[in-house]
Structures are given as C-alpha cells and as structure tokens.
Amino acid sequence: MYRNYTFLGRDEELKDIHKALHPRTAALEDESRNEVRGNAVKDELTKYEAQLQKVSTTPSNHIRSPACCIIQGLGGIGKTQTALEYSFTSETNYDAISWVRSELESTLGPTYALIAKELGLTKDLGGHDGQNQGQTIDRARHWLSTTNDFTTINLKNLDRDRGSDLIFKYLKRKPNSLEEEEYARKIADLLGGLPLALATIGGYISQTEDTVSGFFESLKTSSNAWEASAIGPAKQYEKTLSTVFELALREIPEDARSLLNILAFLNPDQIPESLFLNELGRSSFPFLSTKAK
C-alpha cells in the first residue's frame, strides 16, 4: 500500500486510534508534551526517548492479546484512508504492520499465514509451510479474535471548510479568491462533506481544467432531480456518489465507457495504471486522454 499524500484532517481521530492501540506510548507522549512546557526541551526529549526505549525493550513472557480499534462510518467517509494514514505515521511503534485485503477470500489465507509467522505463532510447527498452512491460518485468526479490548471510532463527514480544503488539495493550489473558496464550500455542502465524493470532484476539476464555480453549477443542476426523493443518510449517500460519477462519465467517449464496464468485472488491484498511461497518444486506445472531452 502507498501513502495517500492528499490525506487531510482526522487529527483527533488519529490520536484516538493511537490511544486505543498503543496506550502506553500515547500516555508517554502526552506526559512529555506537558513536561516540556516551561522546561528545557532538549533534556525532556532525551528523557522521553529513554522512556520509549524502556517500554519497547520490556521483556514479555507471552504475546499480548491485541487491542482492537474499529473505525466506523458510511462508505466513502475515509475509514480505509484513516487506517492507512495511521499505519504510516505510527509505524515506528510496532514490530510489524499487516494490511489484510478482504475483498477476495483467496488473498486472506496467505496474509493470515504471514501474520502468524511475524508474531512467532508457528515456531513449534514442523515440516514445510504448505503442510501446516491450515494450522498457521487458524493460529493467526485465533490471535486476532482473542481480545476483550475494543474501541470504536466513529468518523463523521467533513465540515464545509475542511471539504473546501480537500478540493483544493486535489487541485494542488490555494483558492484564487474568497469567492472561489466559497464555491468550494457550497460543493461540500451539496455533497454533505463526503470525502470520497469531494476527492473525486477535486480530481475531475483538475483533469478537465473546469472552474470550481462552473462545476458547482453543473452539480447543482444535476442534484435538483434527486434531492427531494432522497430518504435517510444512506439514501442520500448513494445519490451523492451517483451524481458525482454521472457528471464524470458524461464527459468520456462511448468506447471508454465500454472499457470501464469491462474492467468493473475484474480485480482492480491486478490492473496497473501503466497499462493505460503508456498508451496515451497511441493508436491502440485512441479515446485515452489526460483530459475529458
């Protein structure tokens, strides 16, 4: 997995995840911040680093059962991206970080087997890996499920200011004016601050070189048809994404839409972007373009 450098916000949620999964380190970090105020920074940081070293080298007679942090929220609200950002920002606090892809059952077994080896759960198993794969997977699943230490983090949609910031982060620039910034806020309002929709819009505006105000007018016109019929948060969410993708798909050629329909049936993780990017400007895929038409 690659880090998402367009990730924005969720500072408090990331702190809550850290407290849930690594309470000792989080407590030391809070204590260090408090002690540094009014004291010599260098001395306090040295003391803090020594405390962390002591924690990380404390011997243990058994593998501690895992703490479990559940990130909850609507689809598209940023659960995966928040977990990914935490794994990168806190990787030095852990001996190993495993990313389990659960879309396909065929990918779970090998990943569980790798987790078991990293945790040292297979040291007493003899023979070749293939002979003991069933036991290895069972031990990993048992370790991951053996805990009473649960914490739930509920993600909320972005407010209009954060939503505007996310759009301009994808545009890789700051607002040209207060008026343009307000149009971005209005887009965030229309979409309820749903991060996936806002990220999609930011990328679309960037690729098509549309204006923020122009896209707002298009979105407003398209959304009028479903605003009155949307019922409940989940229904509103579905309509929001449908409208965003409808606007994007409307701009691409028919051949490109046909190709997308075919790719929708395949595993996206096994389709490298380079397959298409390398064909830009060539006759094999004449409809490929970095800009919508």
Describe the model:
The protein is mainly α and 293 residues long. Helices cover 57% and strands 3% of the residues. The chain has helices at residues 11-21, 23-36, 41-56, 79-89, 105-118, 133-145, 160-171, 178-190, 195-208, 212-227, 232-249, 254-263, 274-277; strands at residues 68-72, 150-154. Strands 1-2 form a two-stranded parallel sheet. Helix 1 (11-21) crosses helix 4, helix 2 packs antiparallel against helix 3 and helix 7 (160-171) crosses helix 8. The longest helix has 18 residues, at 232-249.
What key phrases describe this protein's structure?
mainly alpha; two-stranded parallel ribbon
In short:
This protein has 293 residues and is mainly α. The protein has 13 helices and 2 strands. The radius of gyration is 24 Å and the shape is globular.
Mean pLDDT: 76
Briefly note the structural class of the backbone: mainly alpha
The proportion of strand residues reads under 5%
| Total number of helices | 13
